[in-house]
Every structure is written in C-alpha cells, then in structure tokens.
Amino acid sequence: MPDVFVNYRTGDEESAATMIARELTRRFGEDRVFFASSSIEAGRRFPAELVRAVDECEALLAVIGPRWAEVRGPDGRPALEAEQDWTRREIQTALDRGILVIPVLVGKATRIDLAVVPDDLRELADCQYRRFDHRNAESDLTALGDTLARLLPELGTADHDARAARERAEAESVKKSARDAGHTRMRTRDVEQRVRGGIGNLNGDLSGTFVNEPQGPVNTGRGHQYNAPHFQGDNTGIQFTAGDNSGTVHQRFERERRRSDDDR
After folding, report:
1. What is the dihedral of CA 35, 40, 45, 49, to 10 degrees?
2. 7-59 pLDDT, tens per residue?
3. What is the reported pTM?
4. Strand 216-219 and strand 240-241: pairing?
5. CA 63 to the chain's CA centroid
6. Measured between alpha carbons, how far is residue 145 from residues 3, 19, 161, 253 in Å?
7. Strand 100-106's sheet: what is its strand order?
8. Crossing angle of helices 46-56 and 86-97, rounded to 10°
9. Of the candidates 187, 96, 141, the residue with the CA atom closest to the CA atom of residue 6
C-alpha cells in the first residue's frame, strides 16, 4: 500500500513531479510512493489502479506549476473544468476522504487562484503548501521529505536518510570514545614517566605546571613541592626549583625569616 500519491498534470510540470517521486522513492522505498507513470504495471487498468492508490494512500502531493489551470483538454477547454479530468478526480477523492493533501507549488506558481478552481476543489486552496524550485531542488526535496517523515510515522520509520544519519552518529560516537580512551592512556603513561623521572609520589592537589629539567621538576602552581625544599602553606607566586638549592632559595628564605624575627 503506497503512503504517498504524487498527483500532477501532464503538460504542466511533469519533470518536477518526476524528480519528487524519484527522491521520495529513494528515501522511503518504491512500495511507499505511487507515481502513475512508473507504479502501474503494463496491462493493468489504469482507472482502477489510480482509484485504488488514492483510496489507500495517507497523503497526496498535488504538484502545481504555472500552467496547471491552463492546460487544455481535447475539447479545447481547460482540462481542470472537466469532471472526468484525472488530475481533478484524484485531488477530489483525497479531499473527500479527509487525507493529508499538500499542494507543491513549482517555480513561479503562486497560491491557488479560487477564481479558476472548480467548487469541489476549493478546499485545496486552504491547504498549507510547500514550494519546489529547480534552482533549489536538493534543499526543497529534503524539506518535503522531512515534512512527510514527520507527519506520517510509518513513513518516518522507513526513512533511509534518517537511518543513515543515526548510523553515522553511532559510528562517530564510537570513534570519539576510542579517541578519548587513547588520550586517557597517553596521559596515564605521561604521569608514569614523570614519576619514574624523579617527581616522586604525587598525592593530593596536582594543580600547576610540572616541567622536567636535568635537576628535577619545577612546580609553578599550588601545593607541596617534592624532591626540593619543602614549604607548607599557600605557595602561589613562588617558584621552587628542584636540585641543589644551596645559596639560592634557602638562603633568601632564611634572611627573610630573620628580618621578620628582628622586626618583632
């Protein structure tokens, strides 16, 4: 049973209708889109096939171009005025059934003119439309497909593009997890190498910057300094250098302490 019936008028915008039908078939599957020129098998009675397809569909797309109301029938009158005109009958049947009818205005076609629409199709002018322009074919087709997938749940389930997008997202998630795990292993390996290089036991808050030098690490952040003179308290702003510190940091610290004691 087709979900979408593509309605169009021969002599108006067959090319646009064909593009729409092909894209929807690609996206949702051949069995879910009815397009008369490709969906009716050879030898089938097309009147019965058209009626059956309209009766069973969930949505009808009325493809309307600039000449939709102007194309003439065999009698020379506008084909739309003839009660047996198939384009008119398909839309009328869909409206009578109360199914979703979406006018697709192609190119320079404007909103449906009530002055040229038969009384039994006047409701068509009240239906919210979508646009299709050959210059924006890709984006317009995508928007039309997205609309149908959202409005028809069963069609959304069969949406090839949505399934492909989910698979890409899942694959990217797996790749990201693998990258994160790799970065974690690299950070762990780097810490282990620093420990083996002479930092010693790293406990508590390790905020700050550790730089490996020949004489040991330099801690430019907060916290205790290991493998160097050990100072308690907030060491913000003071640089402690590992290695042989005689005559430098230690002496300077002693002079400052004695001066402070003399002042008291």
Report:
1. -50
2. 999 999 999 999 999 999 999 999 999 999 889 888 888 889 999 999 999 99
3. 0.63
4. antiparallel
5. 27
6. 12, 12, 10, 75
7. 33-34, 4-7, 59-64, 100-106, 130-132
8. 30
9. 141
